[in-house]
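About this split. The held-out portion is used to measure sequence recovery: a designer receives only the structure tokens and must propose an amino acid at every position. Recovery is the fraction of positions where the proposal matches the reference. Here is one held-out target exactly as it appears in the evaluation file.
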């Protein structure tokens, strides 16, 4: 297929796309920009602009301190709004702090739930924050860090010594989806807990944490959920584990009676025990708007478009002879694809400078094309790959 034929095909797909109108719900200043980095920072929903203005004006400006009556439990309220997107129940999710902080917190808690175990496992190619958190928590508890040797996966190593394993559901480089059900089961059979990092999965694919018997999970809201830069992350703990969680980062928001100022530490009975200090209300409201949009569009439709966009991206790669390292099977692939090239960094920079295509680069040789189902057009994917191919051939 020629470039023109690919563009025509993209035009047909965009015309038939049942989610195409969702772009109108976002702030789009330059319709000619192909934004393929929503897997790092999702676009700004129009409702967020309105909501933040409203919260600043009415709740902060006019309500002042009185507004804390409705703000105090906002991390739990937003957690309950997010829960259906995770396949979780009310009272199992709280939105607070960053993914990195939440991971440290749950790692400590998980280790305390498995006394006598000697290790924590994490893949050597895992996202940096996850590896750093594992190393730091292991050091504090006097545990070893286990990683599979090169060429092997966590699925292949023994887990009998492990208190907990940290694993991304979707690989941030290749977009490969791990076996949520199978790996969780294997860890449980070995007596270990798993903390799943859902940063690249939430808002991109359908999740059913209950069906998979997931213990704990964390993840970002600023990627596919369009929650905004630095939007708070979420923590999930399965309901029957919550009361056993010994919260390691204690703060007054996790205290049962927060305003009994002289009380000794006594954690909230539910998932609220993971709250630490004063939440960032503006950021939480922004995250909430993004969560509302994904809930309204529905995860089945969003996930289906993610598969279709990335299938089309592979069709373009094949026609243009680009080397994607992402899985071909859409059901084991998240919502981005990664193209390998030795000049990946320079190509990514030139895509933006010369062709108005924003993609991203991951060290050492990957160009990631993020396909956010609510905002990415098939035309964006066609344009990005055509320009990319033209540079590769120069
Ligand atoms: C897979 C994964 N885990 C963790 C993080 C870190 O999140 P934060 O910077 O919000 O702590 C990121 C950030 O991009 C990520 O992609």
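Reference sequence for scoring:
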């Amino acid at each position: 297929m020629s470039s023109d034929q690919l563009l025509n095909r993209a035009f047909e797909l965009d015309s038939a796309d049942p989610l195409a109108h969702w772009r109108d719900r976002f702030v789009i200043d330059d319709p000619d920009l192909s934004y393929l980095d929503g897997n790092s920072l999702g676009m700004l929903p129009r409702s967020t602009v309105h909501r933040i203005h409203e919260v600043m004006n009415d709740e902060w400006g006019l309500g002042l301190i009185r507004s804390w009556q409705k703000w105090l439990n906002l991390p739990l309220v937003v957690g309950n709004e997010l829960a259906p997107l995770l396949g979780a129940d009310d009272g199992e999710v709280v939105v607070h702090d960053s993914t990195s902080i939440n991971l440290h917190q749950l790692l400590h808690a998980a280790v305390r739930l498995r006394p006598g175990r000697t290790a924590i496992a994490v893949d050597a190619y895992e996202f940096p924050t996850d590896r750093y958190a594992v190393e730091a928590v292991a050091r504090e508890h006097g545990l070893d860090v286990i990683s599979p040797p090169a060429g092997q996966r966590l699925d292949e190593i023994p887990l009998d010594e492990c208190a907990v394993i940290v694993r991304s559901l979707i690989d941030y480089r290749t977009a490969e989806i791990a076996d949520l059900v199978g790996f969780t089961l294997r860890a449980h059979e070995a007596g270990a807990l798993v903390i799943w990092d859902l940063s690249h999965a939430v808002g991109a694919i359908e999740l059913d944490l209950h069906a998979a018997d997931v213990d704990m999970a964390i993840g970002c809201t600023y990627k596919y959920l369009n929650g905004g830069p630095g939007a708070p992350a979420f923590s999930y703990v399965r309901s029957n584990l919550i009361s056993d969680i010994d919260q390691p980062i204690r703060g007054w928001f996790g205290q049962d009676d927060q305003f009994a100022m002289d009380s000794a530490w006594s954690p909230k009975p539910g998932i609220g025990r993971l709250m630490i200090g004063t939440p960032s209300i503006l950021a939480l409201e922004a995250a909430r708007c993004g969560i509302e949009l994904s809930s309204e569009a529905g995860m089945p439709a969003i996930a289906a478009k993610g598969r279709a966009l990335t299938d089309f991206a592979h069709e373009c790669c094949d026609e243009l002879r680009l080397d994607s390292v992402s899985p071909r099977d859409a059901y084991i692939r998240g919502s981005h694809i990664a193209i390998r090239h030795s000049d990946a960094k320079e190509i990514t920079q030139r895509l933006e400078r010369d062709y108005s295509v924003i993609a991203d680069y991951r060290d050492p040789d990957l160009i990631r094309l993020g396909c956010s189902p609510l905002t990415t057009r098939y035309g964006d994917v066609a344009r990005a790959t055509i320009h990319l191919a033209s540079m590769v051939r120069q």
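Annotator remark: The radius of gyration is 22 Å.
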